[in-house]
Design brief:
The complex is a heterodimer of chains A (about 160) and B (about 325). Chain A has about 160 residues and is mostly helical. Chain A has helices spanning about 5, 10-20, 30-55, 65-80, 85-90, 95, 100-115, 120-125, 130-155. Helix content of chain A is about 75%, strand content about 0%. The relative contact order of chain A is 0.08. In chain B, helix 2 packs across helix 3 (about 90-100) and helix 6 crosses helix 7. Classes of the chains: A mainly alpha (about 160), B alpha/beta (about 325).
Chain lengths: ~160, ~325
Amino acid sequence: MTKKNKKLTTEQQKYQKLQKKRETKRPVITNCIKAFLVGGFICTIGQALQLFYIYNFNFTQKTAGNPTTATVIFFAMLLTGFGVYDRLGQYAGAGSAVPVTGFGNAVISACIEHRSEGFVYGVGSNMFKLAGSVVLFGTFSAFVVALIRTLVMKWGGF
Amino acid sequence: MLEGQSTWIFENKPVIISTATVGGPFEANGNISDDFDILHEDLWLEQESYEKAHKVLFEEAFTKAIEKANLTKEQIQFILAGDLINQITPSSFAARTVGSPYLGLFGACSTSMEGLAIGAYITNYGGADYILTGAASHNAAVEKQFRYPTEYGGQKPPTAQWTVTGAGAAIIGKIGNGPQVTSATIGRVVDMGLSDPFNMGGAMAPAAVDTIMAHLRDRHINPSYYDLIVTGDLGQIGHEVSIDLMKEKGLNINETNYQDCGLMIYRKDQPVLAGASGAGCSATVVYGHLLNRMKQGEFKKILVVATGALLSPLSFQQKESIPCIAHAVSIEYGGE
C-alpha cells in the first residue's frame, strides 16, 4: 500500500477504486506519437533555421543557436497571441511543450493573461509565473552538473 | 418545514416568476442556444478584462430577469448570488448595480441551487415578496483563477471539463405564475480523497449521490417520483460513476430520467472533453433550457442537484483533497 492510501478510510478507497474504472485514461501511446511528430517537426524547422543562419550570415554552428532560438520563440509568441498555440498544445502535448517554443508560450501566455492588471502588477510580476520554475531549477541543475564536472576533472586527474 | 434530516418542504410553494440566462460564444454554438435570452459573440463582452465581462454577464441576467417579471429594481428585496472568482466580486459588483440588499453565496458550482433553496425558504416564510437569485461563471476568468493562462499550451486530460461562460438568474416570488419550488435538501461536504483538479466529476459524484439519497429518504419517495433528476456539472465520468455508486448503495435509478446539465449544454463535437462545468452551467441549463421544457409540458416534477467542488487553487497546490457538495431543489409545474 502506498503512503497516500494509508490516510484514506476504507470507504474512500472503495470509492476511488470504483471511480478509477470509469475514469477515461489518457491515450498515452497516441499522445506519444503525436508529441514525437509535432515536436520533431518544430525541431526540423529549428534545424532549417540554423542552417539558414549559418549559410546566409556570419554564424558558426555554435553561435547560430541564438538567432535560431530567438526566431522560433518569436513565432511561438505570435501563435500564442493569435490563440493557436494552446490548441496545438492540446493536440501535441509534450511535442509543443518541451521545445523552446513551449517556454516562449508559457511566458507570453502569462503576460497576455495578466495584461488586465497593468504592466507592473500584471505583466511584470506574472510573466514568469509558469516559466519561473524552469529558469530556477534549470539554472540550479546546470550549476550542480558543472560543479560535479569540475570536481571530477580536478581530482580525477583527467 | 424541516422534514427528515436536511430537507425543507415549502408548503406555500414559492414561484419562480421569471428567469434569464446569458451565454458566451461557445454556448451560442452549443446544443441549447435557443434557450438563452442573451448570447454574446465576444468573450470580452466589450470590457477590458474578463472579470469585468463576468460581472456584465451577471448584470445582464439580473436586469433581464427583472424586466421579464415586469418588476422594477426597487421591488427586489434581496439578492442571493455567487460565483467562483476570488471573494465573489462579480456577484457583489452586479448586486451593487441592482442596489438591493444582498447576501453573497459561495457553493462553487452548486451556488445556483444554494441560492434557489435559501431564496425559496425566505419567500416561503414571508421573509420577502421577491428575491433575485443567480450564479455565473466566465470561462477565461475562472480558468485564470483556478488553472493556467488561457493561451498556455498545456494538454488537458480527457477527464477535464470546460467552464461555462454564462449567467442564470431567477426571481422567486411569494405568489405568481410559473414553476413552483416545492422542497430543498441541503447537502453535506463529502470528500472521497480525490485530488485531481482535472477530474472534478469523479470527485463530485459521491456528493451528488449523498444528497439525492438524503432527499429521497427525507421525503419518503422513490426516484420515479420525478420526471427528471438532473445533476449540475458531473460531466461524463462523474455521471457514470454516480450511477455506479447509486447501484452499489441499492438505489436503482432509471437512466433515461437521470441526466447531467454538463452534458446538455454543448454539442457532442465541441472540444469540451468530459463535459461542461462552472457555476453558470447548472444556472443557465436549469433557468433556461429545463424550465422551458417544463413550461412546454415535458416534465412536471424535476429535482435539480447542483454539484460543487470546494477547492481553491491554494488548497490544491498544498496537496489537499477536493471536498465536494451538492444541493437539491425540487421544482414542479403543471402538476396537481
